[in-house]
Amino acid sequence: MTSKKVIELFYDVVSPYSWLGFEVMCRYRHVWNIELKLCPAFLGGVMQGSGNKPPGVVPNKFMYMTKDLKRAAEYFDVPLQAPADPFEVMFKKGSLSAMRFVTAVQEQEKGGDKLVEQVSRELWRRIWSEDKDITEAASLAEAAKKAGLSDGVIKDALETAASKEIKDKLKDATQKALDYGAFGFPLLVYHRNGSPEIFFGSDRFELLAHCIGEETESFIFSLTTVPSPFKFMAHLG
Q: What would be an example GO MF term here (predicted)?
């Protein structure tokens, strides 16, 4: 049996394109022979560390991004829609407390990233589908509750999110992304022959497939046959 190919996914819930990349990779990791490692990090730190500027501050890019996100959300079947005030959500409130919380959940979880996946998805849903807050402790707790976390785990995660250990872990993950050459999220890193191959954005899946030795058809197959979690959730009301 061949060992699974490892792909790291660096993301931040403040990034809508990260949500698209996250959902697509979560769906077809079961189609490809890969191990997906979720790497929550802080996009603000990556932007500052790389000297990059958010696309939202360039009027033409912002106009394009608005249309592009709508098309991509429909294509990938992700219930993404812009909040009423994207600038306040992304640049004034930000995601530092949310990403520290996700990091704290990951620190507690043993034997996989199931809880991290579910919590991240619920935080994206709050900010990029329901236009709700993700900065207050009550907001984080509500998202975690919907993700299926117990009250005890939520309490511990909220407490440890403010600790030096968790702050340093998030900083380390952010710096690791920068060391790979990140300038934004999502960032996919595939290690081939001891050398990292990086892919930025949510529109490079075919190139990633080629790099890891998968056929393009397997990418299309996964999109059309692997159930979207949002369709199942819709049936639940």
A: glutathione peroxidase activity
